[in-house]
Amino acid sequence: MYMKEKHYRSLDSFYKEKFGCKVVKVSVDAGFTCPNKDGSVNTGGCIFCGGATLVGDKNTDVFSQFKVTKEVLDRKWKNAKYIPFLEANTNTYGSLDKLKSVYEPLLELPDVVGLSIATRCDSISDEVYDYLENLNKRTYLTIELGLQSSFDETLEYLNRGHTKKQFEECVRELKRRGIDVVVHIINGLPGETEEMMVETARYVDSLGIDGIKFHMLYIEKGTRLASMYLEQPFELMSKDNYIRVLARQLTVLRPEVVVHRLVSDPNRSKLIEPHWLEGKFRILNEIDEYLEKNEIFQGKNYISENF
Question: In the predicted model, is pLDDT for residue 54 greater than 60?
Fold first, then answer.
């Protein structure tokens, strides 16, 4: 039903089902900060965080950022629609008036059919929950939450500044209000076993999430993790192990969960290790080949365990 071309429910196919056309997410940076960096929750941020991920000039306003990217993509995809993605830092961390001043004008941009907001589970106030619920009635809204691991000891190691319980409460509140939730998890975190990685996937699925992004831990220049790694190197997951674990994780997800990302796509100029992450499309092809060869598909074990 959900997987017509791939062995998992891809974001591209989901958008085509929902909107009937090609839909592209466009990252924009609205200049929000993060409570895990400014001292409100902690300082220093997550040890793997390299800051903004925007490609382009983040010093321009979000509307100019969107326009420049859209003009390029319009030449590639005729009649495409777009979803602005507030990606960098914590995009609900501000006053309600500030949030409205960013969100509302984005919805008025040409060919926009939704809005995606990346944030933290500890950074949505009651009044913002109410506003997001209202916003969700007017557009297709998704909230992206970083969890990374379902184990509190790992969250503490990463300096996440929140607990598994806080994350769970946030997801349940968003789902209670009918808002789609996309969760980020990281494979290959120090101290975690393969079973722990699979358990994290199983856990987030149990919360009724709508989408998931899988990441491979990588070492980026300028991060606290880079300093730790260069001082005392630790083993990183091999490509083969990553693909094998990812395949297992896909099997424990409900078939309807949308897979927004299968692997990290780091900036090569900032990447220290692992270098096998260079070449995103080659890796995606290898994942597809592995799933097909081994007759693995999303929900395979979920179905056998629950029906």
Answer: no
